[in-house]
Amino acid sequence: MRGVDLKHNPWQSLRVDEFISGDLREPAVVARVIDRPFDEVYQLAADMGGAGYIFTGEHDADVMHNSAQINLNVAPRCVEMGVKKVFYSSSACIYPLYNHLDPDTPKTSEDSAYPAQPDSEYGWEKLFSEWLYLSFQRNYGLPVRIARFHNVFGPFGSWKDGREKAPAAICRKVAMAPDGGEVEVWGDGKQTRSFLYIEECLKAVRRFMDSDFSGPLNIGSEEMVTIDQLVNYVIEISGKTLRKRYVEGPVGVRGRSSDTTLIRQVLGWAPSLPLKDGLRKTYAWIEGEVKKLQERQHVAA
């Protein structure tokens, strides 16, 4: 098993036979990484982040160029080396903006992606790359599995570098807030989302790769909550008493939740871990990281 990324994960050692630190935007790096007919390639790399990164408009060109360049390098190299199967992680962000105006009734069935109107450049690139991999499957016989991830979260991911997503950001804010203080919430808190814990995601990916279905396929949860509810869960888990302060900020679409109809039919699978359980594990890890950070800052002072 070989892993590759721009850098090592700073919080977790990787259980791989070999790790290559490299930039997949460079064809020479892709050639070095995919140097044999691997049984499986998992293409998870992308220029990505949460709402604070994706929806400001400041990173649009990089998001589209960097992610597209990776896939334009990886797909033909997999064909060249005779890779037996490729997994590509797309995103719920490909779904049309017009299907997510009502926070209570978002539509994300796989067949609702067209007419296309993704909510961001990140979504447009993901949609392009879905077509790229499906085209390579049709024209060059490259077996692909395309999943549309819906807000995957958990420990050992970004939580304070500006690329963190809502669960990690809220866990950080709550962990750093003094008891009796307040936590900042972007928007009015009424926007809705569903979130999938990382271990659930991995189970679905493994089952998907073992299937004969190419996708696209939603991998997510139907446990839809408002951001207000998400914040309340984390505050409850923390044991603190905190007030919420609503501020302007990038929030994305008004509503989104994964439609699991197709994955239930095709794979006989649906997530079983309640959102609160995943949040407990995530909060415990982030709380620990916050304490380490505060201790370092205290020593430095």
The geometry reads as globular
pLDDT < 50 stretches = none
Radius of gyration: 20 Å
CATH topology of one domain: Rossmann fold
Strand order of the biggest β-sheet: 3-4-5-10
Whole-number average pLDDT?
95
Q: State the separation between the terminal residues, measured CA to CA.
A: 43 Å
Strand content: 5-15%
What does this structure look like?
There is one protein chain. The chain has 301 residues and is α/β, with parallel strands linked by helices. The chain has a domain at 2-156 and 196-222 and 253-273: NAD(P)-binding Rossmann-like Domain (Rossmann fold, 3-Layer(aba) Sandwich). Helix content is 40%, strand content 15%. The chain contains nine helices and twelve strands. It has a four-stranded parallel sheet, sandwiched between helices. Strands 1-2 form a two-stranded parallel sheet. Helix 7 crosses helix 9 (275-300). The model has no long low-confidence stretch (mean pLDDT 95).
